[in-house]
UniProtKB/TrEMBL annotation:
Family: Belongs to the 3-hydroxyacyl-CoA dehydrogenase family.
Name under which the protein is recorded: 3-hydroxyacyl-CoA dehydrogenase
Claim: Oxidoreductase is one of the keywords in the record: yes
Transmembrane segments: none
Keywords from the UniProt entry: Oxidoreductase
Residues in 3-hydroxyacyl-CoA dehydrogenase NAD binding domain copies: 3-182
SUPFAM superfamilies for the chain: 6-phosphogluconate dehydrogenase C-terminal domain-like, NAD(P)-binding Rossmann-fold domains
UniProt source species: Microbacterium sorbitolivorans
């Protein structure tokens, strides 16, 4: 799978694009508008120093070569025309994902394998929107994928086992440790462990039990973890927890989403990627 198309250029989508190109793949980056596409070169410049910081084999020449293997477009048919694999990283809403996959199904060649990077939705929730269920599954990445390099591969009932294994091998080719998830699980392995922590942190803050800094300090000090839950949320970005919580049946999750919107999102504080979230970050 040499020809890779990534749908969505947000925090995680842009990382998947860059990591795939860094690993030698030819990558098409798709998003819905030329205005979004025009901002991608700035994103690559933000990622380069992180690779230099964290990866011993990273060099300026290698990073420039990665950028040269990325082509961006807002034309969906053009984006998927020669794709060996399409990885979808659009907002975490079932209606958006289903609509996206219906359009991709109509445009992609028969050879193309479809993978969703959905964090909480199951591939079986989405599969009826695709025209090739045997070639549809989930491939989920953790944030900062160049160093938190897990690629969780999860099938649905109709996925061809051979396709499952091909995607696991692809994950390894782009520098991931392939995590073969044996059955469908909301949140895969990593988020099944992580989300309860983040939910507990949000609950403590919303109910006024402790402030953000104290919650993070407590977690770091008591467990030896390098970052606390709100620092993790800054890496994830505000939009994912907002989209997950705004229509929740849980009133605390809804209030958390509303506070994210009014206190952070509406002010442009979206997390590390924008230089400010719960905390401020330098360039």
């Amino acid at each position: 799978m040499q020809q890779v198309t990534v749908l969505g250029t947000g925090v995680l989508g842009s990382q998947i694009i860059f990591q795939s190109a860094y690993s030698g793949k030819d990558v098409v980056a798709y998003d819905i508008s030329d205005e979004i596409i025009a901002k991608l070169p700035e994103r690559w410049e933000q990622l380069k120093p992180l690779y230099l910081r964290d990866l011993p084999d990273a060099t300026p020449d290698k990073l420039d070569a990665a950028v040269s293997r990325i082509r961006a477009t807002s034309d969906l048919a053009d984006a998927v025309a020669d794709a060996d694999i399409v990885i979808e990283a659009v907002p975490e809403r079932l209606d958006i994902k289903r609509d996206t996959w219906q359009k991709v199904s109509a445009a992609a060649p028969e050879k193309t394998i479809f993978a969703t990077n959905s964090s909480t939705l199951l591939p079986s929730d989405i599969v009826s929107a695709v025209d090739r269920p045997s070639k549809f599954l989930a491939l989920h990445f953790a944030n900062e994928i160049w160093r938190n390099n897990t690629g969780e591969v999860m099938a649905q009932d109709q996925t061809d086992p051979e396709i499952f294994e091909q995607v696991a091998v692809f994950a390894e080719e782009i520098g991931m440790i392939a995590i073969r998830v044996k059955k469908e699980q909301p949140g895969y392995v990593v988020n099944s462990l992580l989300v309860p922590l983040l939910d507990a942190a949000a609950d403590l803050w919303v109910r006024g039990v402790a402030d953000i800094e104290t919650i993070d300090l407590t977690w770091r000090t008591a467990t030896g973890a390098p970052v606390g839950p709100f620092q993790m949320l800054d890496v994830i970005g505000m939009m994912t927890p907002y989209n997950l919580g705004k229509d929740s049946e849980n009133p605390v999750k809804r209030e958390f989403a509303e506070r994210l919107k009014t206190e952070y999102i509406d002010k442009g504080y979206l997390g590390v990627a924008t230089g400010r979230g719960f905390y401020e970050y330098g360039a």
